[in-house]
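Appendix B, Record 12. Input sequence as logged:
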Amino acid sequence: MRAGATEEGICLLEFVDRRMLETQIKRLSKTLKTKFVPGSSDLLHALDRQLQGYFLGKRKEFRLPIVAPGTPFQKKVWEALRAIPYGSVRSYTEQAEIIGAPKAVRAVAKANGDNSIAILVPCHRVIGSNGELTGYGGGLWRKQFLLKHESKIT
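Logged structural output:
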């Protein structure tokens, strides 16, 4: 995975083979008026420790500040994602209803896809209304892995 942080919080956590990774980095660089450069920080070390705990089944919540620039609508969608309990799933329709925009299912799905902080902003927990796995920038096989991982530990 590739991670990025500002002094204020984690702004990027994405799979290195995600097709949109470079686009996300360019968008974040422009929005945050900064450049991504290799390095480390206390936040990135904390992220690493917390991700290790998550994958070992010892952590269900992340306690890290997040910097997620976006439109007010995107931010609302991302906050709703963060409210989905570990080991649970919601449909895109349910997410649209939760944010008070029941007719905006496609816009909710697009905002999920624009999320640049995988796992911490758990867009993998959103599925189709029919229970099928749909749409995940990291690949459906990863979505399935993450959901299975969380269901084994709850």
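Helices lie at 21-32, 42-55, 72-82, 92-98, 105-114, 140-153.
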